[in-house]
Design a protein that fits this description.
12 strands; 205 residues; elongated; mainly beta
Length: 205
């Protein structure tokens, strides 16, 4: 009887131990909560475009900016050459380009017969810079002045066929500036025919 009881107790104890050995504690895993990440925008500064400075081109001369006079006259083989000199009398830089036009006048301002041709035998037309603040007309070695040459013959006609101007009305090609220049040397222009050279930056040879 006692042995049977012991056996029963042992079996019960073995069952209990077997149940304890087969059970294992369960572990609870807590996943970390993912928070949304908002990226911070990177602001790239916009650089203002840099402008490349450009040279300001010279503008055309305007009427009223000039003083004009006859610098000198010379004669050779029946041809007279008169050099006209131009000075910018304003305060701004400008350019003239081309052939002036001339009209011969009487002492009272009347129009004399005048025909002219453009003459490029000694120079070609091109822009001539006329800066302000230069030396007076007639100054030796003056720079920044303009010059043009007018030529005519005084030996191929009679006195009755010649024009004798007291003034030369000069009209510049770019600005259309116009002024009357006093004649020098009592010019006698056969048939009123003249040749006009383009404006240069130095006196004609």
């Amino acid at each position: 009887m006692r042995r049977g009881l012991v056996a029963t107790v042992l079996l019960a104890l073995a069952a209990v131990l077997a149940g304890c050995g087969s059970s294992s504690p369960s572990a609870t895993i807590i996943e970390p909560t993912a928070f949304p990440v908002t990226p911070t925008p990177v602001v790239t500064p916009t650089l203002a475009p840099t402008s490349t400075p450009t040279a300001t081109p010279l503008g055309p001369c305007m009427p009223g900016q000039f003083a004009i006079d006859i610098l000198n006259t010379q004669g050779a083989a029946g041809t007279i050459y008169a050099t006209f000199e131009i000075r910018n009398s304003s305060t701004s830089d400008c350019t003239e380009n081309g052939y002036p036009k001339l009209q011969m006048l009487t002492s009272g301002g009347g129009l004399l017969n005048t025909t002219w041709t453009n003459d490029n035998s000694l120079a070609s037309p091109g822009p001539v810079d006329l800066p302000p603040g230069t030396e007076p007309l007639g100054a030796a070695g003056a720079s920044g002045h303009g010059y043009f040459l007018v030529s005519w013959t005084d030996a191929t006609c009679s006195a009755a066929q010649a024009e004798r101007p007291k003034f030369w009305r000069v009209t510049l090609p770019t600005s259309r500036f116009q002024t009357d220049v006093t004649d020098v040397g009592s010019s006698m222009v056969c048939n009123g025919a003249i040749k006009v050279g383009p404006i240069k930056s130095a006196p004609y040879p």
